[in-house]
Amino acid sequence: EEEEEEAQRATQPGSRHRRHRAIGPDRKEKKKKQPPRRRTTVVTSLESGVTLGSGEYLADVFVGTPPRHFSLILDTGSDLNWLQCLPCHDCFEQRGPHYDPSLSSSYRPVPCSDPRCRLVSSPPDPHLPCRRRSRSSSS
């Protein structure tokens, strides 16, 4: 009966903190029963480039193991974000470093058969890793 009363109080408006506390232990117990998974941490910041005169959205991201800092321009008209990687062929000029996969122990190439590669053009040889070879322009 006490648990039922606590559950009712937890769902009342303004009791958000209690609701999380009331159901928190159950969630922890369920997590204990699941096999351990490799954890991925995403750390990023997002700011407008308006103050820089560009009008683009800029994000600071850390990629690889060990993590290396990169600044990205986020294209709000696309769900695809990317870094220029080494070796880099037909790349555009950039101020910061290129991503070097040989310096990351967590890097894995993405095969062209991966569904994520449908977003980019395929290489001439399907056994090679996918590379983005498209350019965009806005009107």
From TrEMBL:
Family annotation (SUPFAM superfamilies): Acid proteases (SSF50630)
InterPro entries from the UniProt entry: Pepsin-like_dom, PEPTIDASE_A1, Peptidase_aspartic_dom_sf, Plant_Aspart_Prot_A1, TAXi_N
Gene Ontology biological process terms from the UniProt entry: proteolysis
Keywords: Hydrolase, Protease
Segments for region (Disordered): 1-44, 116-139
GO molecular function: peptidase activity
Domain of life: Eukaryota
Domain Peptidase A1: 57-139
Pfam families according to UniProt: TAXi_N (PF14543)
Family: Belongs to the peptidase A1 family.
Name of the featured protein: Aspartic proteinase nepenthesin-1
Biased composition (Basic residues): 29-40, 129-139
